[in-house]
Design a protein that fits this description.
Layout (H helix, E strand, L loop, with lengths): L3 E9 L5 E14 L2 E10 L11 E11 L3 E8 L9 E8 L3
């Protein structure tokens, strides 16, 4: 199904700690040459959020993809006194 995809990764977060994530994209809408929807998943590694443990997340997301490269843009909502809000840019490269 073209509406669903999965994601996983690791990064250094805004608290200078390592974070991991897993999730699923659901993007049933097409607009402005992109796919629009939400990404649902779980994150860890934020010392002020749940003592660095795993927590669920739901974020609006848009995706633009070409033959070899793509871009995801997600809006990360803040959690008061625990997690900074952000706009996330994720570059993708297709490996065949």
């Amino acid at each position: 199904n073209e509406d669903w995809s999965v994601t996983a990764g690791r990064f250094i977060n805004s608290d200078s700690a390592h974070s991991s994530y897993v999730g699923a994209y659901y993007q049933p809408f097409t607009f402005a040459y992109g796919k629009w929807g939400v990404v649902m998943g779980a994150f860890n590694g934020y010392p002020k959020a749940f003592d660095g443990g795993w927590f669920p997340a739901l974020m609006p997301v848009a995706t633009w993809e070409g033959e070899r490269f793509g871009l995801n843009i997600a809006l990360v909502p803040p959690l008061q006194n625990r997690l900074y809000g952000a706009v996330s840019f994720q570059l993708k490269w297709r490996v065949n």
